[in-house]
Amino acid sequence: MILVTGATGKVGQEVVRQLATAGVPARALVRDPTRASSIRIPGIEIVVGDLARPETLPAAFDGVERVFLLTPAAPDQVELQSNALEAGRRAGARSIVKVSVAGGPDAGTQIGRWHWATEKQIEASGLGFTFLRPTLYMQQMLFYAPSIAATGTISAPMGAGEIAVVDTRDVASVAATVLTEDGHDRRIYDLTGPEALSYDRMADAISDAIGKKVVYAHVPPEYTRKQMLSDGRPRWLVDDMIVLAASFRDGYGATVTSTVAEVTKHPPRSFRQFARDYAHVFREGH
Ligand SMILES: NC(=O)c1ccc[n+]([C@@H]2O[C@H](COP(=O)([O-])OP(=O)(O)OC[C@H]3O[C@@H](n4cnc5c(N)ncnc54)[C@H](OP(=O)(O)O)[C@@H]3O)[C@@H](O)[C@H]2O)c1
Predict the structure, then answer these.
(1) Which of 37, 114, 132, 156 is the most exposed place for a label (fewest CB within 10 A)?
(2) 90 C-alpha to center of ligand 1: Å?
(3) CB neighbours (10 Å) of residue 35?
């Protein structure tokens, strides 16, 4: 049995759907079953559990052989993932497929260090593992949908930095493949889209998809910091986003890998494809 955590999120939902489509029985861990309507699919068993409450996990992990591990990036992520690892180990699981982040120990961000800490715990656990390290998700651009719809603008501190953004659906395809095939044990997969693009080029692709001019405006990092803090974003997140933006401006996100195609046997989606698929969101702003 495969257990999918983060099953109501961007990547996890798609992992569940792809397993169901492939006819692979799986179990989806959810905290609130009333929010699981999108994954109530034939072949998928919904189990209720909370990675912050280890006492809820033995039943959810019972009989599980492979675990898809994903939680939100947050200060408690190491603890949540450690709880999942322990529950998997106790249940006799054989392997864990963990969504991590590009850069591994060199990511330079707090989020990167948290992921790295969990990778080390999993390596030391004796379980089989595969780490998926995606670059920035294309779906992050949906954050700008309200301003794109309202004023046709994307404001960010990315300069002309190019990023090999990856579609969460392709991250999920890699995960679904690794969860259902042998041959991926102890592998670390750096996942990117098919090309590195600046925010200018992404704005052009969104313009073409929605039939309206969208312009990217670089803003100073300090402006973004103030904006995020006044929006109530936690300081650790703001600090990390500023570090990440600087590394993108310096070109650290530009490396393109062929891993998605090698693992899934399909080319990764282009940003143009992503923009067409989500054109309604960019047009309507939500
Ligand atoms: N954003 C990027 O560009 C990017 C790039 C590379 C890597 N990543 C990594 O990708 C991961 C985020 O992926 P995502 O965007 O798919 O996440 P997401 O959409 O935010 O989904 C998070 C999932 O975790 C679940 N969850 C939260 N707290 C939980 C708990 N205590 N117990 C059980 N489940 C819990 C949520 O369930 P509920 O419905 O119950 O809230 C939800 O299903 C992070 O590790 C991040 O570092 C992100």
Answers:
(1) 37
(2) 24
(3) 10
DSSP code per residue over 40-81: --TTEEEEE--TT-GGGHHHHHTT--EEEE---SSTTHHHHH
| Model pLDDT for residues 17-60, shown as the tens digit of each residue | 999 999 999 999 999 999 999 999 999 999 999 999 999 999 99
- Distance (angstroms) between ligand 1 centre and the Cα of 70 equals 6
Return the amino acid letter for 214. V
Q: Is 218's C-beta closer than 6 angstroms to any atom of ligand 1?
A: no
Q: Which of 3, 30, 31, 133 to mutate to test the pocket of ligand 1 (most atoms within 8 A of CB)?
A: 31
Provide the β-strand partners of residue 137: 166
DSSP string of 207-270, one letter each residue: HHHHTS--EEEE--HHHHHHHHHHTT--HHHHHHHHHHHHHHHTTTT----SHHHHHHSSPPPP
CB-ligand 1 contact for 71 (6 Å cutoff): yes
pTM of the model as a whole = 0.98
Q: Rounded to whole angstroms, what are the CA distances from 224 to 137, 148, 156, 178, 219?
A: 19, 17, 7, 38, 7
Low-confidence residues of the chain: pLDDT under 50: none
Radius of gyration of the chain, Cα coordinates, nearest whole angstrom: 19
At residue 95, the 3 state secondary structure works out as: strand
Tell me the best of 11, 14, 34, 171 to mutate to test the pocket of ligand 1, counting ligand atoms within 8 Å of each CB and taking the most. 11
CA–centroid distance, 8 to ligand 1, in Å, is 8
- For ligand 1, is residue 163 a contact (CB within 6 Å)? no
Q: Contact, 65 vs 2, CB < 8 A? A: yes
